[in-house]
Amino acid sequence: MNKVPNNKAWWLVLPVFLLVAFSAVVPMMTVVNYSVQDIFDQSSRYFVGADWYRQVLQDPRLHDSLLRQFIYSACVLLIEIPLGIAIALTMPTKGRWSSLCLIVMAIPLLIPWNVVGTIWQIFGRADIGLLGASLNQLGINYNYAANTMDAWVTVLVMDVWHWTSLVALLCYSGLRAIPDVYYQAARIDRASAWAVFRHIQLPKMKNVLLIAVMLRFMDSFMIYTEPFVLTGGGPGNATTFLSQTLTQMAVGQFDLGPAAAFSLVYFLIILLVSWLFYTAMTHADKQ
Fold it and tell me: Distance between alpha carbon 24 and the CA centroid of its chain, in Å?
């Protein structure tokens, strides 16, 4: 007896497609439409083609912000990934201390981004902040509002404090998923702790580390709220990243056409770098 295929289940997927179209495709098409027009008001729009893209790609603000963004994201990954792995390796695996550590590690992730910026803005103040006042008492001339290096270090430490927990929790879950038989074999072979980490733990955490690297790169490359609240992009333009430059162009100057072209270039850069990360890491995993 031949069974008649029933494709009615595909109707269940339709709401998902509609939701994605409404939340992603429609706004994206709107931005694409704005990026090829010179908009004066609702009734005055002129097609300019790729003029805004050429203008944005030649804009020195984009070049400077892009360089700062890559340096910042590279610093974030170089610090948070090894630090998250080290914290995960030292966390207890059983008992009450395990649950307590998980709760403590999750606390920074629950704090809203604008609150994080406000906390560090007060914490780092040279007059009333615990960090700033303590450093000045020790003879260190610290002022994140006036010194470029101090602002950079403060923004970077703030991000490390806020997001290293995510990397640590992901690595901890990867470590807990390793079967005990691997550790039993290592004990029989009298393998050192470094050998266990290099040949058992690190290879088994590759997929988790891929997720951690991708998440932290994309989030650090799109960072806006924390440095905006903490430094306002200053001193000067020292901590003005791509998202802040885009906001200044779209909201401050109301240049919708160039801002739309800028946002699409921004999106393509994130997509390209994320794809390169994913391809390189999956290729290494296959080898």
Answer: 20
- What mean pLDDT, rounded, does the chain reach? 86
112 inside domain: yes
Q: Report the CATH number that the domain containing residue 124 is assigned in CATH.
A: 1.10.3720.10
Output the pLDDT for position 158.
Answer: 94
Q: 11 in a domain, yes or no? A: no
Domain that holds residue 128: 56-286
Query: Does residue 24 sit within a domain?
Result: no
Of residues 127 and 77, which shows the higher confidence score? 77
Domain count, the chain: 1
pLDDT at residue 16 in the model: 81
The pTM (predicted TM-score) of the whole model is 0.84
